[in-house]
Amino acid sequence: MEFRADFVDAVGNTPLIKLRGPSELTGCTILGKAEFMNPGGSVKDRAAKAIILDAEQKGLLRPGGVIVEGTAGNTGIGLALVGNARGYRTVIVIPETQSQEKKDMLRLAGADLREVPAVPYKDPNNYVKYSGRLAEEIAASEPNGAIWANQFDNIANRQGHIETTGPEIWEQTQGKVDGFICAVGTGGTLAGVAMALREHNKDIVIGLADPMGAALYNFYKNGELKSEGSSITEGIGQGRITANLDGVDFDEPFQISDQEALPVLFDLLKHEGLCLGGSSAINVLGAMKLAKKMGPGKTIVTVLCDSGSRYQSKLYNPEFLKSQELPVPDWL
Ligand code: PMP
């Protein structure tokens, strides 16, 4: 018999899928790490697992304890499901602008969901800071303890990618990977994979695919945390150097607009059967830009973070797309 022991054991070991169109257009082999195939449906299952196991090892969580987090949704879904599997309650703070589908999934999983207005990080009521204060309050009265997962500045997050995502990519490509690129939410995925792959090959090229509205492109290009424009993508778009990004440099930063990335996403669904979320669009277009920069014949890996079904009401909704002056899939 071959099986995974439980939900937590089923996280990771996702396949690499060749993206035919992007590969043909660039003359490179562009591979997507199919993170939407994780049991909770996104790359963030890995961070949730790593953070919870780390807290258990440090003795911070006891059976019946509470996990508190501020999240765009996917980390919350991962924490709620890992929490259910291991006997913890979850309290999740989410900006109200995030997709209905993710909020519904959080409620379905039994998370105690607190929706807050979407305000910038510098505002004390920003969802991340709010969740930190809430965790302190809950910890004060909770007999079994409460932790703040703190995915942005808790480096157990990137450690999970150093130990799993990076080595998986190295093994699956038999070390023939020339470049890796993805967008940043917390930076756990990009920094963790970069650190793991550079251990094997210090010359590997690491790209950053930054959506409009994020400040990292300018930071890695010219040292200035500056943003312009905006994006409808969720879960990515960082304005500061989180602890997960700290100490890691990236070779090739790209700034990518929704306008340019969404047609790639729609093509992947229509012609390759891959129904993906918005951050995957930024990642795949980033991989194509990196491929063009590096020249034909290279193997470039990126991340397919979650499924398009998590954003049906926005990303695949013609009315919403038109209201944002974005391209609409021609079959919808
Ligand atoms: N894509 C999606 C859909 C996400 O939810 C996230 C996490 N916020 C990311 C990408 C970014 O991953 P990371 O936090 O590891 O940078």
Automatic annotation (TrEMBL):
Protein name as it appears in the record: Cysteine synthase A
Domain Tryptophan synthase beta chain-like PALP: 10-306
Organism: Aestuariispira insulae
Alphabetical UniProt keywords: Amino-acid biosynthesis, Pyridoxal phosphate, Transferase, Transit peptide
Gene3D superfamilies referenced in this protein's UniProt entry, alphabetically: 3.40.50.1100
Lineage: Bacteria, Pseudomonadati, Pseudomonadota, Alphaproteobacteria, Rhodospirillales
Superkingdom of this protein's organism: Bacteria
Names of the cofactor(s): pyridoxal 5'-phosphate
Pathway entry: Amino-acid biosynthesis
Keyword Iron-sulfur (UniProt): no
An MF annotation (GO) of this entry: transferase activity, transferring alkyl or aryl (other than methyl) groups
Biological process (GO), any one: cysteine biosynthetic process from serine
